[in-house]
Amino acid sequence: MLLSVECSVCSQVVPLFDYYNSLLINEKDENDNYVELGDEFILEPNEHFNNLLVNTTYSDVQLPTNVYNKDPGILNGVYMSEALNPIFVDNFQRDPTLTWQYFGSSTGFFRLYPGIKWMPDENGVISFDCRNRGWYIQAATSPKDIIIVVDISGSMKGLLMTIAKHTIITILDTLGENDFVNIIAYNDYVHYVEPCFKGILVQADRDNREHFKQLVDELQAKGVGTVNKAVLESFKILREFREAGQGGLCNQAIMLITDGAVEDYESVFEKYNWPDRKVRVFTYLIGREVTFAQNVKWIACNNKGYYTQISTLADVQENVMEYLHVLSRPMVINHDHDIIWTEAYMDSAVRTLTQSLLLMTTVAMPVFSKKNETRSHGILLGVVGSDVPLRELLKLAPRYKLGVHGYAFLNTNNGYILSHPDLRPLVGDSDALSTVVA
């Protein structure tokens, strides 16, 4: 019999059941009893999965350290996703070339098949969050043009500036090769963090993102903040790219990061964004001060955006991720089930577990709520995906048609080489992957 309880906070009906938590499986307490959520989970080496200890009968669930494993939303999602288990098993039986299959939830849990034992890092922390992965972000949202506008006035000194920089870096980590970005800092004047990118948007590939991160780290707070000029500049850039048919050609947004806004900025929105509101404005109020909260919230709410307050470094990750849900709503409401293929990568999580190098790509698609009562709300449940070794894709090439010296290679839509006979992956200590063709 399955019992359930209603959460007094959110009125959700939460099933009381155990699931296999990948961190806790096979763990016992001092009395030699299995810990809660850590029942016996048979693991056996499997050659197909690089001799990693796996369970090909069941999937299990991983959660990052900052997500409570018995939160009502988590329990409901895990219970709902139990239905994926027989589907994963059947897929693998019908196609033995399949590797990892998984579902990444918008609430933070990650259901993985085959089930494995997940190990924390040296500090006892599990930092892996499926919502930060490129395959999740790419499937959950459409291509986007983003301008990050950050306040570097004197009031942002100290911890506030540190939080603001971390917020920018976290936003950059949510962007991919199909997105375009620029960063504008403002105090008395408007500053492009990279002067060479003045007045334009650049592709958010790995090189540009890393370059921006280095420049953001050098920002210093001084002067008086005047947000109007920075927002005005941002609207002009986005309008020029939109009218020229450049950029992502889908979503456009301004990310405003500040500790307060006191100017009369309504005229800027009237001239450049109303009534169509083609550009969403997301606002991040930095610090604990709430004096300007209503002003900053007004900016977001009147420009189809989202407002949030970030008081500590620990708040950054969850609060930044909220914008993805807003950008996914039109896609969810229209039920655009686009299937995406990611760029080639060497997954750091798999590399840690298997100690082997294997170039992968991921095929993924979003999962939406189809309930009639919530369909108009545009609720994204998560992303389902599977890893595909590039060597498996190359097997599909018709070698007999290529000639004696012919060979097949794969390119992405952004011009990056996925696979080539002379491709040499270069993986550094940071697990960042770059490739060269010898």
Automatic annotation (TrEMBL):
Stretches of the chain forming a coiled coil according to its record: none
Cellular compartments per GO CC: voltage-gated calcium channel complex
SMART domains (UniProt xref): VWA
InterPro entries the UniProt entry points to: Ca_channel_alpha-2/delta (IPR051173), VWA_N (IPR013608), VWF_A (IPR002035), vWFA_dom_sf (IPR036465)
CDD domains documented for this protein: vWA_VGCC_like
Record GO terms (molecular function): voltage-gated calcium channel activity
Gene3D superfamilies given in the database record: PAS domain, von Willebrand factor, type A domain
Membrane topology field: Single-pass type I membrane protein
Domain VWFA span(s) in chain numbering: 145-327
UniProt keyword annotations, A-Z: Calcium, Calcium channel, Calcium transport, Glycoprotein, Ion channel, Ion transport, Membrane, Signal, Transmembrane, Transmembrane helix, Transport, Voltage-gated channel
Main location: membrane
UniProt subcellular location: Membrane
Family membership: Belongs to the calcium channel subunit alpha-2/delta family.
Protein name stated in the entry: Calcium voltage-gated channel auxiliary subunit alpha2delta 4
